[in-house]
Write a structure and sequence with these properties.
alpha/beta; disordered C terminus
Length: 219
């Protein structure tokens, strides 16, 4: 893996739906100040023009903070703003098509919901990481299928890719997912709706401290 592709770990911040670009940048800047090193731009209600404006601004901001920048759903937008990669859901086009647009050195992540079979398919097709969830009730996707910690344990045993957990994750319930094998926790509300965003970012990052130390001692 390239250095960039090895960066799928720790807090994986996903932007909230926000039409006010200045407010979005303010919140993201606070998250970056708290140590966030991995950001995904997601804004489902926005039109194409707004998404382009916001993605460009976030790409610039993440470069200033040396953070990875992933675009949700849209490989062409990711390529246009020179993002580090794209995240694909079930209805976002095939991985092969995204790879054609982005090239071999960009990151492609794939949502696998609660199905280990999808993760194996994604790995075989060249995904750089896979995501599972929702693990807990989610205000962003209240009807999302549910996954459990046992799925992470199975995926950790069977796959060599980074594993991302998503769905209703907080600093309180996220620890069990890290223990089960998650390399990264994807978070929206518990980070960007926090009264103190930098502190929330540091709290999430702290969940991985022991895990990273254990990996070093085992190597």
């Amino acid at each position: 893996m390239t250095c960039k592709k090895s960066g799928i770990n720790g807090l994986y911040a996903i932007t909230p739906d926000c039409s006010d670009t200045a407010e979005l940048l303010r919140r993201v800047r606070l998250a970056l100040a708290g140590g966030t090193q991995l950001l995904q731009y997601r804004n489902k209600p926005a039109d194409a023009d707004l998404r382009l404006v916001q993605a460009r601004a976030l790409r610039k901001l993440t470069l200033e903070w040396s953070a990875l920048f992933i675009v949700n759903d849209d490989a062409r937008l990711a390529a246009e703003v020179e993002a580090d990669g794209v995240h694909l859901g079930a209805e976002d086009g095939g991985l092969e098509a995204a790879r054609t647009v982005l090239g071999k050195n960009r990151i492609i992540g794939v949502s696998c919901y609660n199905r280990i079979s999808l993760a194996h398919e994604a790995a075989g097709a060249g995904a750089d990481y896979v995501a599972f969830g929702a693990f807990f009730p989610s205000g962003t996707k209240p009807a999302a299928v549910r996954a459990d910690a046992a799925l992470l344990q199975q995926a950790r045993a069977e796959l060599a890719l980074p594993l991302v957990a998503i769905g209703g994750i907080t600093a309180q319930n996220g620890a069990e997912l890290v223990q089960a094998g998650a390399d990264a926790l994807a978070v929206i509300s518990a980070l960007f709706d926090a009264a103190d965003i930098p502190s929330a970012a540091r709290e999430f990052s702290g969940l991985f401290t022991g895990k990273n130390l254990n990996r070093k001692s085992a190597s």
